Structure formats: C-alpha cells, structure tokens
Amino acid sequence: MSGPSRMMPSGVTGRGMMLLVLAALGLVIAPFVADRYLVSVLTTVLWFAYVGQAWNVMMGFSGLLSLGHALYVGLGAYVSAALFVHFGIGPWAGMVLAMLVAVVAGCVIGFLGFRFGVKGVHFALLTIAFAEVARIGFDHITWVGGSGGFFLPVEAGASDPLNLRGSPVLFYYVALALVVGALFLSRALLHSRLGYQWLAVREEPDAAEASGVDLFRARMTAVAVSSALTALGGVFQAFYFNNLFPEQVFSMGRSIEIILPAIVGGIGTLVGPILGAFILTPLGEALTFLIEAGGLDLPGLKQLFYGAALVVIVVFRPEGVWPWLARRLGLVRQPGEGA
After folding, report:
1. What burial class does residue 153 get, using C-beta atoms within 10 Å of its C-beta: 0-12 exposed, 13-18 middle, 19+ buried?
2. Residue 94 and residue 156: Cα distance in Å, rounded?
3. Could you state, in order of their start, the residue ranges of all structural domains in the chain?
4. What is the DSSP letter of 160?
5. Between β-strands 150-151 and 243-244, what pairing exists: parallel, antiparallel or unpaired?
6. pLDDT of the chain along its 339 residues, tens only?
7. What is the pTM of this model?
C-alpha cells in the first residue's frame, strides 16, 4: 500500500482553478441533463468521495491505518435509522447522536491502540476486529432488525427534505454538499496548527514528540474527526437506501471500498479521494453493467477488478493519480514557484 503523498503544493495555478470551477459547475448542473440512472451513479461516486475524504483524515493526515471504517458507517446508519423509526427523530437531529456514538467507538479503539503501543498493521487489525464484532453483534439485535435487515418507511412521491425523504436529485445534492464541505474542512484542518501536528506525527513521531507534540492527543483527535465524518456518511446511506443489513454495512469489503478512492487518487492530498472515486466507481458500475448485459454469473469479479486497480496504482503510481496528474498538467504550484 502506498504511503501518504509527500507532494505539498503551495497553491492552485490559474489553470487548476479554472478546471476546479468547471468541474464544480458540471456537478451542479448534472441532474438537469442526466437521466435517473446516471444521477444515481454520480450520487454513489460522491458518497465514496466523501467517505474517502473522511478516511484520509486518519491515514493521509496523521498516518493511522484503519481497515475497519465500515464500523463508523454502520454505527451512523443504524443509530440515525433507529432514532427515526422508533422515536420519529429526523436525520438532521439524529446525525448528532450518530456521530457522537461513532466518536466514542473510535476513541475506544484509539485509546486501546495508542495506550498499549499498538501500531501500524496491528492497529489496522484492531480496527478490523471492532468492525467484525459490530457486524456479529448487530446480527443479533432484533430491535434494529437483526440479520433480517432494518427497513425505513418510504412513502411514494413524498418530498420532505427535513427528514431526507425525496427524489434521487435531493440525495445527489446532499452528497455533493457533503463532498464540498469535507473538502473545505480538510483544507482548513490541514493548514491549521493541528494539521501541522498531524503531519509531524505522520512523518517523524519521535521528533514530533521531542518538539512538544502530544502524540496521544493528536492521534485521538484524528480518530475522532475521521469517525464523526464517516458516521455522517452512514446517516446518508441509511436514508438513501432505506434498508440496512449488518452483513453489508459492517463488512470488510465495505471498508476496502472506503479506502480505495484515497489510495488510487492520492493519500494525504485534498483532491485525491475525490478523483479516486470518480475513477473507480464509474469503472466498477460499467463492469457490473457489462456482466449483467452479457448474462454472466461472475460473483467477486468487481472485487477482483478493485484489487487489480490497487496493484496497478501501487506499482506504477505509488503516490496516487492526483499528484502525478497535477504535476503533468500544471494544476498546482510547487514550493518555491512564483504565483
């Protein structure tokens, strides 16, 4: 697996800014020119771009490898869905408690890992273990459906944005808002004092600690921020699909799908997770379409494709696609370059 990108651009060039503006405009007007299927694909792309950004806070900014981020998606989804179904609490209010529950879970994992010196791949295994425990546990919690699934009520033709009830276009713009919000938040964090501490901890933890950085606090903050953001993605997933199954929501496969956009696009970069999602998800959807159109029964082929894509990126573009693309097209200024 490739490490965080060391490319630290000093700013976006005029060409880069123009491309960003055009991309933003294209995404804003997309629902007006795209059919229902394409809108659903774009919504899926944006969702993976968002959760990829959330995961990037841990791995990309602070160097903490998590392979169990499906845990936070699942907790956010189940908490918000349960509040809505059993108590009539809407998702905009329920997401607060959902994020809080995910933060508590993340902090428990972080405390166990950081206090007992669990690092690297062993910390990643710890995150997997908690996600698996949650999957097995929710399989037996009948209050939220257990293994039989938990279903949110849906009224045909209903339009209620306050309860995230509406057309696919509504969810598309919510997903777009999440991506834009996460992008600006990530940029603010990366250029804050906390962000510089994260980078120091990621690159040289011993030197960072010697210079006065509280490693435990910095890492716990990264876990808390990442888990909260990911849980918000879980809230969206619950109300978008209206059904939850522990085997799917907490699965290891879902965790892998969450981290792939950042790996492909560029770990530690702001645009990388977004670009990675726009590369991987449409290709995966196209592969699924071709399989179904050909009447083939090839279970696991999509996962095989993702694995092959990961191998190609690690071998040929270990920093990810975005750093290479940005340099080739002159989209960012490197340190020392003039405005």
Report:
1. exposed
2. 23
3. 37-151+160-250
4. B
5. antiparallel
6. 545 654 444 466 777 788 888 999 999 999 999 999 999 999 999 999 999 999 999 999 999 999 999 999 999 999 999 999 999 999 999 999 999 999 999 999 999 999 998 989 999 999 999 999 999 999 999 999 999 999 999 887 678 888 899 999 999 999 999 999 999 999 999 999 999 999 999 999 999 999 999 999 999 999 999 999 999 999 999 999 999 999 999 999 999 999 999 999 999 999 999 999 999 989 888 888 888 788 877 777 777 888 888 888 888 888 999 999 988 888 876 654 443
7. 0.92
Task: State the DSSP string of 245-314.
Answer: -HHHHT-HHHHHHHHHHHHHH-TT-SSHHHHHHHHHHHHHHHHHHHHHHTT---TTHHHHHHHHHHHHHH
- CA dist 119 and 114 (Å) reads 8
318, with CB counted inside 10 A (0-12, 13-18, 19+), is middle
Nearest partner of 24 among 243, 173, 212, judged by Cα: 173
* Structure-derived torsion over alpha carbons of residues 29, 164, 258, 283, reported in degrees to the nearest 10: -40
On the 0-12 / 13-18 / 19+ scale of CB atoms within 10 A, 256 is middle
**Which residues are CB-contacts of 168 (< 8 A; sequence separation ≥ 6)?**
36, 39, 40, 43
